[in-house]
Write a structure and sequence with these properties.
The complex is a heterodimer of chains A (200) and B (944). Chain A has 200 residues and is an alpha+beta fold. Chain A is 48% helix and 19% strand. In chain A, strands 2-1-5-4-3 form a five-stranded antiparallel β-sheet. In chain A, strands 6-7 form a two-stranded antiparallel sheet. Classes of the chains: A alpha+beta (200), B alpha+beta (944). Chain A: It comes from Denticeps clupeoides (denticle herring). Chain A: It is found in: Cytoplasm; Golgi apparatus membrane; Cytoplasmic vesicle, COPI-coated vesicle membrane.
């Protein structure tokens, strides 16, 4: 609650973390090395924050001398931490960007299971939004474009089908991954495979 | 493979986590498939994700295993899978500090960063900068410059942000990119603009002129990014604060104009900047407050919170400015976010009328248990302020506070309550008894030693003067029975105070003391024995001297001296007299001068200026063994502010040496100075023992060099000395833009002079009024008139006491002296300093007759050397004189010994400084007159 003026700096975000509904860490990044340097301190901070925030969806809290904005979705909690003097709305911009980007990448299924299945995408999104505490991007559309990631769960269905059809051709499929092909191409190649198998 | 895994999980329920039972060793084993040909991107991606997930969970990777995995990972650069490549970058960043030889990926990353794929370029730059060190940076400098001005926003942003990270590591290199950053700042992309602005500011923040120029440019041209606007507002308000610019400055106008920005973020930033400005009038606050008022009814919780928090701050200084918002604040009392509700109530408590207090207190007590400790502290502070405003309400408040005291809470919270109750007691004599009763109840079950000792100290101070002191004895003695050593010791001291002030209680106190003498702890026993003996004398003077008197030395100073003492074992006992006295005057200035890192706890005792100097000097190996720092002078400017090199001098006095610290700043951006030394030519018997040069002095970065002067000890008549100072250095010309110096330089010198100060009052005050030897200062048995009153120095009783204590007397004395450090009385000790401002200036005395008529901010005082020592040595030795008489006498003869301070002005003071690049000589003398009181008692004055 100290009112000392803020040194002008781009280092806005002190930490960002995603917890599940038991308060376990799914992802956490601490950008200020002076703040909670050890894992134990980080965990206890997360626990404290979780205990104080998981009951009521209040959007903002002030704990341990830190401004924390948060948001929950089904069974996960997103937190963005800044210093006490930080502009709360800047932190909110980061939180909203994180949430909206993830919701696009996960096709609106912002829940624990889906998040864990696409953990690589989540890491990349966080990396695109914040770099070492500096806000890198605040527009979710831009973030999604830059990450250029497609959620795996639906792809998996395509793979099941394709693997089933191609059988022994798995190695080849891996070399030329589907993630780089459009849906049309997938269908095209599936059609061809079926054609060949019938012709045989 | 993943799919099968998924199916199993689905059966076992949705709560499972595919990463739950990951074993580090198993994952590293799996990482071997990185080496397979052809690369299977999907599986590799999954394994990389697992590795990053493990790192993120805090799993510890040994250097060998991390290096192994890292090297295997580098093979994945052969694959063209986008996500896989991006995950490789992430792994590089995560492992940069764990693995060895991460720089082997430099060429791969450089290739990606300059390649055609825009998706890779930005992240590659960021990964590359993460693994680059200062030496490698030169190699990629060309690419970085190109990347900063790249037309793809993500590339440009990444390069700018990475440069910003590297400013800390290699400022000089990144500084050369300033032109590119300037170009990027005019980009159309909002994030590029923001990052460029941030980088430019970080590169220029030491150069106020450049910052001003930059601000002017951007405030005129206008920016698109709300983030950049927020940054500009912060820079502007910092600049306003530094230059103490009035509120009619264009910067203030700019901030005010931001109140009409279309982004809420910018509007809030501007309002908050105005609110935090010092000396803001109500009229200037009004627009900011009305904006915040609008925010109060926003549907966004964060915005309401931000608004009410800022209003709360306004209310601390200008309660009347916030009254307009009372209605909106009332609506927030029932906000579902308790933080907002608490802040609203505390704001109302500050602005509302006396009649609403009861209602608000009732409201807040309904949910006080739900809010976090931080906000409870805010509530307590609000109550504390309220009690000052409406003293009649203290009973309501006291009840509320005592209820809060009973609730659970952390140390900070309890301390805030205790402090609040104590302040109420101090201001409100009527509330004293109830307050003390609540505190007594609190210490019955208090886990915080610091608070218990503090309360015991207060009980000792206030208790004896209440109508029925006897009822506190029980609480105090309970502590002796039940608590830890520190609390027991504090309780004994408190008991002694009751015994000393209440004659009817004395017999019972003595009985209790007798019991305490059986205590298992040394300190408690020592105190009990000591107090017992003092009390038995029934001498008011002794009581005053040994029971009520606190510690008058500076606590950090004492800590340092004791530490020093333990480092250098010696036969001699620790001498309390070597510890600097607490100097309140110096402490006041600490914030402006001290380069202290902002501590997280605002209450943390900030070291005084002198303590900081002592630390700095102690870090220089040449100055070890000089003993404790006795006194540091105020800095004196030796040059005018606009000259090419700015030099100021600070004198540090030790018992046999003086250290001159020259803070030099190079204001020429085309020169790099090296091996800077200020050579001093003494005129008298003084000799310069050693120079410590400043190794390098780049443009606008201040550096310090030192000269060590030995005070002559064979010639007591050498009371003054004049030094002429010449700054000698090696100049290397350098490119003003890049800062790269030429290979060879040449020696040069620059004669420094004292600048005639503009302000007559400054010139009149000598900078170096100080110094007596430490033993002189510390032999002061009592400080100031207050001290005289409290401690009449009659020799008789003390002698009696000594004999009655017998051989143990010395030991007990020492125990008594150290007492305050060990804890119990420390809080009280500080308070006592405040009571005697005279102490602050104990050593600040001046002796020039010419200055007698000047307004004298500090009282002067002198005391003959070592009376206490004399008294301790032989009972009955008439060491103690009458202070008042002494002082008067010394004032006279102190002046007499100084036939006059020479005040010469530099004959060539006006020789121009307008031809940079050449060296000119100014004449200039640093006059220093050092007067010696006794051998090691020196007092020096620099006369301007």
């Amino acid at each position: 609650m100290d009112s000392a003026a803020l040194e002008p700096s781009l280092y806005t975000v002190k930490a960002i973390f995603i917890l599940d509904n038991d308060g376990n860490r799914l992802l956490a990044k601490y950008y200020d090395t002076g703040l909670y340097p050890s894992m134990k301190e980080q965990r206890s901070f997360e626990k404290n924050v979780f205990n104080k925030t998981h009951k009521a969806d209040n959007e903002i809290a002030f704990l341990e001398g830190m401004t924390i904005v948060y948001k929950s979705s089904i069974d996960i909690f997103f937190y963005v931490v800044g210093s006490a003097q930080e502009n709360e709305l800047m932190l909110m911009a980061v939180l909203n960007c994180l949430f909206d980007s993830l919701s696009q990448i996960l096709r609106k299924n912002v829940e624990r299971r889906c998040l864990l299945d696409n953990m690589d995408g989540v890491f990349l999104v966080v990396d695109e939004i914040i770099d070492g505490g500096v806000i890198l991007e605040s527009d979710p559309q831009q973030v999604v474009e830059k990450v250029n990631y497609r959620a795996g769960s639906e792809q998996a269905f395509g793979f099941v089908l394709l693997d089933y059809i191609t059988g022994n051709m798995e190695g080849q499929a891996d070399e030329n991954p589907l993630s780089e092909q459009s849906v049309a191409q997938v269908l095209q190649s599936a059609k061809e495979q079926i054609k060949w198998s019938i012709l045989k | 493979m993943i799919k099968k895994f998924d199916k199993k999980d689905e059966e076992s329920g949705s709560g499972s986590n595919p990463f739950q039972h990951l074993e580090k060793s198993a994952v590293l084993q799996e990482a071997r498939i990185f080496n397979e040909t052809p690369i299977n991107p999907r599986r590799c991606l999954h394994i990389l994700t697992k590795i990053i997930y493990l790192l993120n969970q805090g799993e510890h990777f040994g250097t060998t295993e991390a290096t192994e995995a890292f090297f295997a990972m580098t093979r994945l650069f052969q694959s063209n899978d986008q996500t896989l490549r991006r995950m490789c970058y992430l792994t590089i960043k995560e492992m940069a500090n764990i693995s060895e030889d991460v720089i082997i990926v430099t060429s791969s990353l450089t290739k990606d960063m300059t390649g055609k794929e825009d998706v890779y370029r930005g992240p590659a730059i960021r990964a590359l900068c993460r693994i680059t060190d200062t030496t490698m940076l030169q190699a990629i400098e060309r690419y970085m410059k190109q990347a900063i001005v790249d037309k793809v926003p993500s590339v440009s942003s990444s390069a700018l942000v990475s440069s910003l990270h590297m400013v800390k590591m290699s400022y000089d290199v990144v500084k050369r990119w300033v032109n590119e950053a300037q170009e990027a700042a005019s980009s159309d992309n909002i994030m590029v603009q923001y990052h460029a602005l941030g980088l430019l500011y970080h590169l220029r923040k030491n150069d106020r002129l450049a910052v001003t120029k930059m601000l002017n440019k951007f405030t005129k041209s206008g920016l698109k990014s709300p983030f950049a606007y927020c940054m500009l507002i912060r820079i502007a308000s910092k600049l306003l604060e530094e230059t103490e610019g009035g509120h009619d400055s264009p910067l203030f106008d700019f901030i005010e104009s931001c109140l009409r920005n279309k982004h809420e973020m910018v509007v809030y930033e501007a309002a908050s900047a105005i609110v935090h400005m010092p000396n803001c009038t109500a009229r200037e606050l009004a627009p900011a407050v009305s904006v915040l008022q609008l925010f109060c009814s926003s549907p966004k919780a964060a915005l309401r919170y931000a608004a009410v928090r800022t209003l709360n701050k306004v209310a601390m200084k200008h309660p009347s400015a916030v009254t307009a918002c009372n209605l909106d604040l009332e609506n927030l009392i029932t906000d579902s976010n308790r933080s907002i509700a608490t802040l609203a109530i505390t704001t109302l408590l500050k602005t509302g009328s006396e009649s609403s207090v009861d209602r608000l207190m009732k409201q807040i007590s309904s949910f006080v248990s739900e809010i976090s400790d931080e906000f409870k502290v805010v509530v307590v502070q609000a109550i504390s302020a309220l009690c000052q405003k409406y003293p009649r309400k203290h009973s309501v408040m006291m009840n509320f506070l005592s209820n809060m005291l009973r609730d659970d809470g952390g140390f900070e919270y309890k301390r805030a309550i205790v402090d609040c109750i104590i302040s109420i007691i101090e201001e409100n004599p009527e509330s004293k008894e109830t307050g003390l009763a609540h505190l007594c109840e609190f210490i019955e079950d208090c886990e915080h030693t610091v608070l218990a000792t503090k309360i015991l100290h207060l009980l000792g101070k206030e208790g004896p003067r209440t109508p029925s002191p006897s009822k506190y004895i029980r609480f105090i003695f309970n502590r002796v029975v039940l608590e830890s050593e520190a609390v027991r010791a504090a309780a004994v001291s408190a008991l002694a105070k009751f015994g000393a002030q209440n004659d009817d209680l004395l017999p019972s106190v003595l009985v209790l003391m007798q019991r305490c003498m059986m205590d298992s702890d040394d300190e408690v026993r020592d105190r009990a024995t000591f107090y017992m003996n003092v009390l038995q004398q029934k001498q008011k003077a002794l009581n005053a001297a040994y029971i009520f008197n606190g510690l008058s030395v500076s606590v950090p100073g004492l800590e340092k001296s004791l530490h020093q003492y333990t480092l250098e074992p010696s036969e001699k006992p620790f001498d309390m007299k070597t510890v600097p006295l607490a100097t309140a005057v110096i402490t006041e200035q600490k914030t402006e001068i001290a380069p202290v890192a902002t501590s997280k706890l605002p209450e943390k005792l900030a070291p005084s200026r002198q303590d900081i100097y002592q630390e700095q000097l102690a870090a220089i190996p040449e100055f070890q063994g000089l003993g404790p720092l006795f006194k540091s002078s105020e800095p004196v400017q030796l040059t005018e502010a606009e000259t090419e090199y700015v030099v100021r001098c600070i004198k540090h006095t030790f018992s046999n040496h003086m250290v001159f610290q020259f803070d030099c700043t190079n204001t020429l951006n085309d020169q790099l100075l090296q091996k800077v030394v200020v050579q001093m030519e003494p005129s008298e018997a003084y000799e310069v023992a050693r120079y410590v040069p400043a190794p390098s002095l780049p443009y606008s970065q201040p550096g310090s060099c030192y000269s060590l002067v030995r005070l002559p000890d064979d010639d007591p008549t050498a009371v003054s000395c004049t030094f002429s100072c010449t700054m000698k250095y090696l100049v290397r010309d350098c490119d003003p833009n890049t800062g790269e110096p030429d290979d060879d330089g040449y020696d040069d010198e620059y004669v420094v002079r004292i600048s005639p100060c503009g302000d007559p009052s400054e010139t009149a005050l000598p900078i170096g009024r100080h110094v007596a030897s430490s033993s002189l200062a510390f032999s002061l048995p009592a400080g100031g008139p207050g001290g005289d009153r409290r401690r009449p120095h009659t020799e008789g009783p003390e002698a009696q006491l000594r004999s009655s204590l017998g051989g143990g007397g010395r030991r007990v004395r020492e125990g008594g002296d150290v007492r305050a450090v060990i804890g119990p009385d420390a809080g009280g000790g500080r308070e006592q300093h405040r009571q005697f401002p005279g102490d602050a200036a104990v050593r600040a005395f001046r002796q020039s007759p010419g200055e007698q008529e000047l307004p004298r901010p500090l009282p002067r005082r002198r005391v003959p050397r070592g009376p206490r020592r004399a008294a301790a040595g032989a009972a009955g030795a008439g060491g103690r004189g009458h202070h008042a008489g002494d002082r008067a006498e010394q004032r006279g003869d102190g002046g007499g010994r100084h036939p006059g301070l020479r005040g010469l002005k530099s004959p060539a003071a006006d020789l121009g400084s307008a031809r940079p690049g050449f060296h000119f000589f100014f004449f200039f003398l640093l006059f220093l007159s050092v007067s010696t009181q006794q051998r090691s008692h020196t007092s020096d004055v620099i006369k301007l």
